[in-house]
Amino acid sequence: MRVALARLMLSAPDLLVLDEPTNHLDVESVAWLERYLADWPGAILFVSHDRDFIDAVAERVIEVSGGRALEYVGGFAEFVVQREERLAGLRAAQAQQQRQVEHLEQFIDRFRYKATKARQVQSRIKMLQRLERIEMPDRAEQAANFAFPKPQRSSRVVVELDDATVGFDGAPVLSHVDMVVERGAKLALIGPNGAGKTTLLRMILGELEPDSGTARLGANVDVAHFTQHQVDSLRFDRTVLEELRAAVGEQHGRNLRSVLAGFGFPGDAVDRKVGDLSGASARALRWPESWWSR
User: Fold this and answer.
1) d(Cα 278, Cα 237) in Å, to the nearest integer?
2) CA–CA gap between residue 192 and residue 200 (Å, rounded)
3) pLDDT beyond 50 at 136
């Protein structure tokens, strides 16, 4: 990613188009990219799910939703405020319009068969026909609905590393690591690319044996693992439903279409090819099997 960004910037384009440029960048690289793009003299059009990155770089936000593109002035924080104000205004206008419609319909029903009011009734019928109804945006499809299953109760210590050293071809990547993770703790690993974060996770999961020392999970610990390259294990020629069925099988009493709807694949979306999905949607299909239990 860093090499690709460097190549683009050295070409000095008038318009820089970036699709999720912060993916796979470490914290320091993201901070540098934010500063660099904020001072970029040309135009920038970028796609991002990183709210802080949008706030640091963007002067305008374009929201693509429901087949429409709406522009807002400012970064992500301003976008959220302006969007809520716009939706509140739409709700008020819709309510006012509905009252107007009800008033017209009541007049029509009351005087429909009265000859002296025929012209007025016809006028109001035409008003209803010409009225452009205010519709609220349907945002339901953007919200995934799922929950993590409750695991069995584990030991107090769920991960323990004792003087663990691990590396490749005799060259250590991590040396003499001591770490204890207790049940219920929430930890984030940060560091520059190549520092050994993924190596540490692989050692904890038992995919790599330490060259010295120990790395072990506690008793009764259920583990679910989601990797940064999870999409690579997908079959792009399968449909969404076929890919899930291949991963979890036919679960008795479970409707896989309903499960997929909870993950943002409603209706006919389950029949789309995996290769036609966006990267974010495709990643949802490779979440560990234990996560699909609700």
Assistant:
1) 14
2) 14
3) yes
